[in-house]
Amino acid sequence: MIGYLEGKIIKYESDGILLLVNNVGYEVLLSANTLNNIKDKDVKLYIYFHQTEKQPKPVLIGFETQDEKEFFQLFITVDAIGPLKAIKALEIPNSHIARAIEEKDVKFLTSLRGIGKRSAEKIIAALNGKAGKFILLDNENVDSRSDHNTPNLSRVIEDQVANVLKEQLGYSDKDSRILIAEALTKNKEISTAEQLFDDVIKRGIKP
To answer: How far, CA to CA in Å, does 107 sit from each of 11, 112, 153, 171, 172?
Structure first.
């Protein structure tokens, strides 16, 4: 079973990469957040190997850190949340999702791709009280990456910017959270709500 790969990216896909390791190309699925973080050609990934009778073709899912893989493995313990559904849903930093689970924020969880109200309620019922450590671990892991440091902004600041994007500019809650996560990942100098808002707007993305 494959648990770790280190190699060179030779092709980017919409949902992952083709990774060259010792002259062998591996198709690796990535979350939208991880795919956005990976810019270097040389990468190291922790791998979740998925193969079942219903899914006979092996699927490799990659993570930048062991903690991200652990959160994913926790996430898929929820009834009806399989690996392929989970990797699509985990499109923003784990700390945001973990915080929503601990705060029982159904609305936030339903903003994730493929997660409806019933699934959000199942996630909270199964994981509330178990996800707290990932709120801190995600920030620590991001700080350890040499080129992709995300500032540790409070939820209050993030919510302020998300509300402005939704109420004044017409963004959906989901798009607002994704744009905020992308801005924080790409610009490590952001430290205030104003800087965060300006960074999102400068990207010129329309709702």
So the answer is: 36, 9, 21, 15, 12
Q: Residue 40's closest CA among 147, 141, 114, 135? A: 147
Q: Which CATH superfamily is domain 4-144 in?
A: 5' to 3' exonuclease, C-terminal subdomain (1.10.150.20)
**What are the pLDDT digits (tens) for 2-42?**
999 999 999 999 899 999 999 999 999 999 889 888 877 78
> Using one digit for the tens of pLDDT, what is the confidence trace for 139-197?
445 444 444 444 445 666 787 788 888 877 888 877 887 888 878 777 778 878 888 88
CB 157 within 8 A of CB 124: no
The phi and psi torsions of 171 (rounded to 5 degrees) equal -75, 150
CA–CA separation, 33 and 40 (whole Å):
15
d(CA 65, CA 81): 21
Compute φ and ψ for 10, nearest 5 degrees: -110, -10
Q: Give every CB contact of residue 134 below 8 A, 6+ residues apart in sequence.
A: 67, 71, 74, 94, 95, 98
